[in-house]
Amino acid sequence: MIKTWELDPNFKNEILNELGGENLTACYQCSTCTLGCPITELVPSYNPRKIIQMSLLGMRTEVLSNPDLWICAICQTCTARCPQNVVVGDVLAVIRLLAEKAEEAGEIKIESPRPLFETAFLHTVEKYGRLYDIGLAMEYYPKREGSFIKGQKAMMDDYMAFGMRMFFKGKMGPLGGHGLLKGVLPSKIKQRDVMKKIFKWVEEKEKER
Amino acid sequence: MGIAVIGGGVAGITAALDLADAGYKVYLIEKNAQLGGKVSELAECGMGLTSRIVKIENHPNIELMLSSEVEGLSGSAGDFKLNVSGNEIGVESVVLTPGYDVYDNIAKGYAIDNPDVLPSLEFEGMLKACTKSENGALVRPSDGKPVKKIGFIKCIGSRCQDNEICSTACCYYTAKEAWEVKERYPDIDIYIFYMDVRTFGKDEALVSDLKGKYGVKYIRSRVPEVIAEDGTLSVKYEDLEKGTVERLDLDMVVLAVGLLPSKTMDKLAKITGVKTDKYGFVETGMTSPLETSVSGIFAGGVATAPMKVRESVAQASGAALKAALLSGRTETIPGQEERKYIEVGEEPKIGVFICGCNGDVAGSIDVPAVAEYVEQLRGDVVAVNTNTLKETMDAIESGIVDQGLNRIVVAGFSPREYEEMFRDACATAGLNPYLLEMVNLREQCAWVHVAEDATNAAKSQMTMAVERARYLEPVPIEQYPVTPKALVVGGGVAGMNAALDIATAGYEVYLVEKESELGGKLKEIPELQNGVKGSDVLTEFADKVTSNDKITVYTGVAVEDVRGRAGAFKAKVTGAGVDDEIDFGAAVLATGAQEFVPEGYFGYGQDKNVVTQSEFAKMLPVDANTIAMVIDGASGDGVYSKSNSIEAVTNALKAKKLKPEANVFVLYQEIKTYGKWEMLYKEARESGVIFLRYDAEKPPVLQDGVLSVFDVIFNDEVQIKPDLVVISALMQPAAENEQLSKMFMVPLKNGFFLEEQERPKLVLTPVDTVNEGVFICGSAVYPAMIDETLAMSSAAASRACVLLAKNFIETPGIVSVVDDEICAGCGVCVEICPVEAIEIVDEPVAAVTYSMMTVISGTKKVARVTEGCIGCGSCASYCPSDAISLQNFKAKQLYAQLDFA
Amino acid sequence: MSVEKLAYLPGCPSEATALEQHMSTEAVFEKLGVELVELEEWNCCGAAEAEDQNLVYALNARNLAIAEKDNLDIMTPCSICYYNLARTNNALKANEELRAEIKGIDPSLEYNGTITPKHVIDVLVNDIGLEEIKSKLVKKVELKVAPYYGCYLGRPPETAFDDPDDPVLMDQLIELIGGENVPFSAMKTKCCGGPLMMTRGDLAFEMARKILETAKNAGADCIALACPLCGMMLDAKQPDVEKALNVKFEMPIVYITQLLGLALGIDSSKLGLQKNVVDTKKILGKVV
User: How do B217-220 and B716-720 pair as beta strands?
Assistant: First the structure.
């Protein structure tokens, strides 16, 4: 049972005010997004239509703490097919951003390592101007597992074999003939200060809202 | 001069015929090589359309310009010059009926290249074709296997980014296609995927029949793709109750594609200067639905907005009349010339015309063999093979004139559809039209039998007909003058508009309103959706009506004692100190409808926080923080107006705009914002109105200030604490309809007047009734938006004017005849006669002889058939002593037929 | 041929996991006579991990601005880089205010919307053209190929350059070089699972499995693709998918530029075919 007077009818406006969330309210609940979703095929509970409906109604906490938010593969099938141009993929991205903010504010707890992963990814971009796979993994795994040691183990489980493949194929390391530490050390751009400025600007934009 | 009708689809055909039949010169311009447009592609196209096309082809008042396009237009209303494929024509006014094109940018995800996936028009064609196939089975085009499961996917190219508006017609035509499949192939399973079922009135009843007794599954999901794998088709849909995505295998998929403006519309708009809206449809107004932005140019049908055939032809009729008002009646109306019938001798000379119907008949029947067989029948019988309707008509006329044929047998077509035309052909050639006999060799032979069986069956059907024809006798033809006046019942916007249109066309009108003033429902509407005040519209119409010296307005009165027939009615108008006898040739029933809230519905009446939509509209702005609207939930005597959703969405949007922080909920079963109103629905959502969908089985409940509704999309109960509950009232027909129905002999359905043709057939005469000369329009037929009501009332006016334009009407004279010698004067026939055209009289009896003696003179009671007999045959069938017979169905004619059966 | 010189954004994976895509792209364009000017100091586009659109716009404005200075359209072989460049280009072109704001971050982000971002496939088929390519082919690649497009070529509509449900450009290239496209339309545009690899590996593996399995069942000799993330998921992680789900595919995964390079007569080592994780030797035998 949903008691509308206990909900936050302003939640839809929070989404509408974000870049990418502008078309949320055009939704007429037709199921197109859910029916084409490759994730729904694997995880039946995953239902972007329902996430939108709950958002429209103002079920802020339920939406933001929904672990399903974090299994979207951003494949854009929903966005491409939506008859009302809701830009479902972007709306879900906005909701994820709002969830991260809400977690920061201590309102909810996110049951997914994905924010950690994305943050780690972007940290390398901020730092070097380009993605640095190893740096990303070194930040992500320990945070995800809660300790450095556990993180190292998890990383080894996931990426030991993969890393060896990369090594032997010469994509990382000396065997490719592209340099001794190819892919092992970060590839850095010179204008890293611009990266810092960009991330700072984005952070300030977020605070503005 | 004359009137140009641009576009020869069903709308253009309707407009052209209304005009030409009323004596106007018409130029009918069609870009294709034949008339008919999209409707001719429909499965049941033959019904009604073909005969109209032939009529146009033979109409002396219509100049048919096929394979022609309008290339230029100059001048102004009353004096237009049109360049039509290089030819210049001068006209006073123009009717635009260019029709539509279907959406064809279908996403590849629907597997459109798969032969078993068909857009709706192609499916119609397929249904039409399998009527004629050998065993009539519906098979998959890919492998010829019988179809067991069909899925219909709605809203393909409607309510989407490519075409934002609702195509309106698809919900109905999908239901009709499903119905047709189920009627013909009851074992085929049908699944219809939809978002909202936007059908109204009788179409709604059809959908409910489909869901009920036909077992068609309506599933709410907008299916985004058809998965074609290894020779199978499947679709995915959301089972809202289970909360799962389900996959369903199908043998065939039909895509209900949307209706877009005709591809020629753009060019036509440039040439004519007519403004189009952002969707490419001709721009018209809510209170001027047939008028374009250019004076003297009118539009009808899908040119103005997507709509069904029924609404299209109504608009076309209406637009025709509007155009006629700028032109003059310069032409003779066919059938209005003096006719003399040749004396028919005793010896029948029978002409038999067998039409191959372009293969429809000749495909399964060996027509030459049948003709040869017929010629061997006893007596003077001549057989002629033809191939088309027109060929047959021409052959009949020359057969009568040149060969002296005096009995005609026509074989091939359905008499229901074409009998009148063939009778007319006989009459034109001077033969009494009742010396015609028809044989339906198409539906009743060619389509149901094959090969040799068909030919043999045809031979016996022909023999029966020829034998009956032998005994046909001329039926006396009576002529009576038409009273060039109309009666309009109902002084609401529909009635006033109809009265004005008929009066402007030059006929006197009696406008009768039961209330003390004109106006009807419009009085209750503060503001139309376009922002115009209801009272302004009302004043404008009422002023025009009262200042028109051809219109006699009666208020506070009732119509009583209606007598007579098409062209020559009489009635009494009584009340408010009036007791007048009026004569009129045609009647328009426009009695409207009224709001009704069932007793106890949401405590309406007791709870002051529960109001109707129309009350709410008058209350705005309101300071409620939470407003909940419940639409289409009430059950009781009455129907929901076609504008029900639109009204609620309009008010919800207004409330939200006036107070953006208010919570506005709309609880609905189907949001029926058809056509361009879809944009209003979108605007309401975008403004933050929340829509909650419920099922009829679990209606919302208001208790202790809490409104609970089971939202079927959420699959959960949602509770609201509204400050104000707004309910939609039902619409009830006018109380006097019951009485009017009896007096005017127009049947009712749920209290509303019923048009001539019953759904789910193609409705080509939406304002005509079974009683010729009586027309219906507006909310008296079905409560609808003001634009539709006005278009329909102009259509009724147009149809009335076609009748009033005639000087006289020809009818078979007294059709029922009484054999005085047998008649015992029992009077059963008097009781049974629906038109009171039989009376019992005392007839002097000259002499009665008993055996060898006694001569007594005296009188005897016998039945007399009087003027007004409509030849229905009720008396003949009830007569206990077989003393009454119909001239055209005499026992000897029937026995002759049976003898050879 | 309408195109002679393009700015080139190789993208982050070009430096490691998708080295062979980078190599083959450069080699193919050299052979076709189109000069690629690698963007000096290019930065990461933010990939799928930058969910804040402001971040995407700012990061990509910089790359666009660098190309604009040379007045060159910008080409990338990476589908995600393309998507981010293209949507940034659309947003900045339409919004002067946003342009000004982004320029305010740093003058090097000044972008005026005068160039167009393109994906390699778009350039090959629509700009260079099949006829032109055909004239330079020296070999036939007689392979049965499953053309795999993934996500960002046909969708979302605002940046797409191929049909969202049934894209054809890669099919056309494969046919042109003598290959045969196996029936693959059900999987052509399905997501590979890549973005979930690090957070929901189970889902990612399952998604990859479907694609690999469909290709194998369709009798493909290899899958051709055009996105380094898809490449990572389907090729580099293929042994992991096989291990986790206890299946065996051994399905070679090649970038479309590698296949095209073979048909243009470029040496396989220059195309990086030795760097693909699943062995590609057996497909080389079908290049005649």
Answer: unpaired
Q: Tell me how close the Cα of A111 comes to any Cα of chain B, in angstroms.
A: 22
Half-sphere exposure of C79 (CA within 13 A, CB side): 31
Which residue on chain A is closest to B246 by alpha carbon?
A35
Q: Helices (H), strands (E): how many in chain C?
A: 12, 8
C203 vs A42, A113, A189: nearest CB: A42
- Looking at chain C, the domain(s) classified CATH 3.40.50.11810 span 136-284
Strand arrangement of the beta sheet that strand B244-250 belongs to: B226-229, B232-239, B244-250
pLDDT digit string, tens, across residues A63-113: 999 999 999 999 999 999 999 999 999 999 999 999 999 999 999 999 999
Give the DSSP letter string of B546-573.
Answer: HH-TTEEEEES-EEEEEEEETTEEEEEE
Q: Which of B760, B661, B659 is nearest to B175 (CA)?
A: B760
Q: Do residues B222 and B119 make contact, with C-beta atoms less than 8 angstroms apart?
A: no
Strand partners, B149: B189
Q: What is the mean pLDDT of residues C1-23?
A: 92
Provide the pLDDT for residue B857. Answer: 62
Look up the CATH number of domain C5-119.
Answer: 1.20.1050.140
Asked whether the beta carbons of residue B108 and residue C166 sit closer than 8 angstroms, the reply is: yes
Q: How confident is the model at residue B671 (pLDDT cuts 50, 70, 90)?
A: very high
What average pLDDT does chain B have? 92
pLDDT at C166: 93
Query: What band does B633 get if pLDDT is binned at 50, 70 and 90?
Result: confident
DSSP 3-state of B239: strand
Q: Which one of A93, A176, A198 has the shortest CB-CB distance to C19?
A: A176
Chain B residues touching C165 at Cβ < 8 A:
107-109, 225
How far is residue B52 from each of residues B8, B11, B442, measured CA to CA in Å?
Answer: 11, 11, 19
Please list every residue in chain C whose beta carbon sits closer than 8 Å to the beta carbon of residue A161.
239-240
Q: Does A17 touch chain B (CB under 8 A)?
A: no
Compare all CA atoms of chain B with the CA of A37 and give the residue at the minimum distance.
B245
Distance of alpha carbon B402 from alpha carbon A42, whole angstroms? 81
The predicted model gives C67-81 an average pLDDT of: 97
Phi, psi of B577 (to 5 degrees): 75, 10
Q: B276 and B261 in contact (C-beta within 8 Å)? A: yes
Instruction: Determine contact: C165 vs chain B, CB below 8 A.
Output: yes
**Chain A residue with Cα closest to B717:** A1
Identify which of B238, B718, B720 has the shortest CB distance to residue A31.
Answer: B238
pLDDT of residue A55: 98
Three-state secondary structure along B351-401? EEEEECHHHCCCCCCCHHHHHHHHHCCCCEEEEEEECCHHHHHHHHHHHHH
Question: Which three-class secondary structure state does DSSP give residue A51?
Answer: helix
Candidates A106, A133, A128, A115; CA nearest to A191 is A128
- Model pLDDT for residues B44-77, shown as the tens digit of each residue: 656 678 889 989 998 999 999 999 999 999 999 9
Distance from C219 to chain B by nearest Cα, in Å?
15
**Structural domains of chain B sorted by starting position, each given as residue range(s) with its CATH number in brackets:** 3-99+262-324 (3.50.50.60), 108-259 (3.50.50.60), 349-473 (3.40.50), 485-592+734-809 (3.50.50.60), 596-730 (3.50.50.60), 814-899 (3.30.70.20)
Ranges for all domains in chain C classified under CATH 1.20.1050.140: 5-119
Tens digit of pLDDT for each residue in B589-628? 999 999 999 888 999 999 999 999 999 999 999 999 999 9
Cβ separation A162–C51 shorter than 8 A: no
A-chain residue closest to B671, CA distance: A28
Domain covering C136-284 assigned CATH 3.40.50.11810 in the classification: yes
Output the six-digit token pair for A2. 């949903």
Query: If phi over 0 gives left and psi between -120 and 50 gives alpha, with beta otherwise, what is residue A3?
Result: beta
